[in-house]
Each structure stands twice: as structure tokens, then as C-alpha cells.
Automatic annotation (TrEMBL):
Protein name per UniProt: IS3 family transposase
Higher taxonomy: Bacteria, Bacillati, Bacillota, Bacilli, Lactobacillales
Domain Integrase catalytic residue range list: 129-294
Family annotation (InterPro entries): HTH-like_dom (IPR025948), Integrase_cat-core (IPR001584), RNaseH-like_sf (IPR012337), RNaseH_sf (IPR036397), Transpos_IS3 (IPR048020), Transposase_IS3/IS150/IS904 (IPR050900)
Function per UniProt: Involved in the transposition of the insertion sequence.
UniProt cross-references to Pfam families, sorted A to Z: HTH_21, rve, rve_2
Amino acid sequence: MLLYEAMHALHEENPAAYPIYQLAEAAEVSKQAYYKWLRRSETANDQLNQLVMEKIRGLDEAHKHNLGVKRMTMYINLDEEISQRINHKRVRRLMHIAGIRADIREKKHNHIKTNEMYITDNVMNQDFTALAPNQKWATDMTELRYGANLEHTLKLSAVIDLYGTYVLSFNVSETETSAAAVQTFQRAYRISGHPRHVLVHSDRGAAYTSGAFKNYLRRHNAHRSMSRPGTPYDNAIMEKFWNDFKVEWWDKQHSFTFKEAVKAIKAGIDYFNLIRRSETINGHTPEEFRNMAIYGGASA
């Protein structure tokens, strides 16, 4: 019974703060009824609930309280120790009993209407699907704040392979420069084996319209695509990644020095590539999904 389970969970967490007699009074039930429930024979369903609860608490801690009911359910059903499929209603109930909820601010959604002007330059045309690794890449820079009072800023640039939304490379710099953009792509090409004819999408920031950046991509026979002026939704895949990165990771960090900030950024990129799973890629991590395409089913 949900009421008794909630009483038991609170009492187990802190017996001094939540004595049974007070919990019984608050719930308007008798202590005898609670203890009768407690002494009942443990059923298979009780054992399953206990196992799922342990998994929920572990996942909540591992993912820094980022998981809501939907994603928590996905992770639970990927666990080989869980012998049957668990529905979201059970997960919601157990999360409620444990006092666990996603501790993230509301994500922003950009609903800017697009303008059909400049469509010739926007080769990507908001088609962010890719059938294989290294077909389509997206790139962008964002600003992050750090310091004792968040008084310092840095620029984080990244290249994302749209196949599985895998972060190929990132670069941290004090300002947005063409050199930073080129360095990010140097790492991306090196990691991916220097593929040819990749469709590369960016906005029209100064770093991406510079001669140095355009010449670098030209030497790699890359196809260019750029967002139309005033339409950030043309690079929605990067906008979403930055928003998720900040909401689920960066907002929960506090780096006092530049060195600490870089370390936290690397840990965050590793989290999104190696740990965070997504239903859009069949419950895999981006690295698993990418490796299955590259190595024919093997995942590193």
C-alpha cells in the first residue's frame, strides 16, 4: 500500500525525525495497521519494488538528479538485473516515495519562426538526421561563467556529429576567435579519421565566416551550410545541446579557476557522450550508437 510504503521510507531515512506514531497520526491510520502491513510476508512484487527503488536511488545519484520519470524508466528497463518491464507509473510512484525528482530548471525552447530568405546558404535546412557517422556535423560556441561569484567568462566551442549527437571535439578559449574554431575542427577531423565531404553547419558568427575557417574546411573538401540571419533555430541541434549541457551539467558545477572549469567541461562532455542515454537512439549512449555503426555492432 502506497501510504504504508511512504511511512516506512520516511522512518527508515530518519527514525528520530519521523517516529511511527507521528507518521500514523499524520496519515490518520493506526500504528497497529502499519505494523501488520510491515509484518506481512514479502511478496515477489515487494522484492521487485525494493530492487527498482535501489536502482532509482543509484541512477539519481549517478546522473546528478537529472532524470525525470520518463528517462528514469528508460534506464531501469535497460538494467539487466530487472527481469520484467517496468512501466512509468511504478517508477513515478517509487520516485515519489523516495522524494526523488528531476532537479533541473525548465529548459528553454526556441520557437522563432523561420524566414524563407537566404535558403540557398542553409543547405542543412533544419534536417538534422544522419544515416551514418561523419555525414553531417554541426558546430557552435557558447559562453560559460565561472569564478567565486561567476565573474569570469569563457567560450566553449564544439563539433557534434549528428549521427547520435556525438561530441567529436571541444575547445575552451577566453574569447570567440577563428583560431578556436579551427582548433576544434582539427581535433574533430583527427578523431574521426579525416573524412571527406562532410556537411558542416554553423551560424554566421565571425569565427565561422572568417577566411581562416573557410579555408580550413575547403582543404578538407567539406560542404558548407550556414544559418540564415536572425534564425538561430536553423542550428537547433546545437541550441538544444547547449541548453541540455547547461541545465543538466554546468548549472550544477562551481568552478573557481579556469583550470577547474576546463576539467568540469571535459567531465560534462564525457557524461553526454559515454553515460547519458537517449530514447531517440534506442536507449544507447552516443558513443555506443556511433561504435555500432563504425565497428559493426561492437561498442567500446
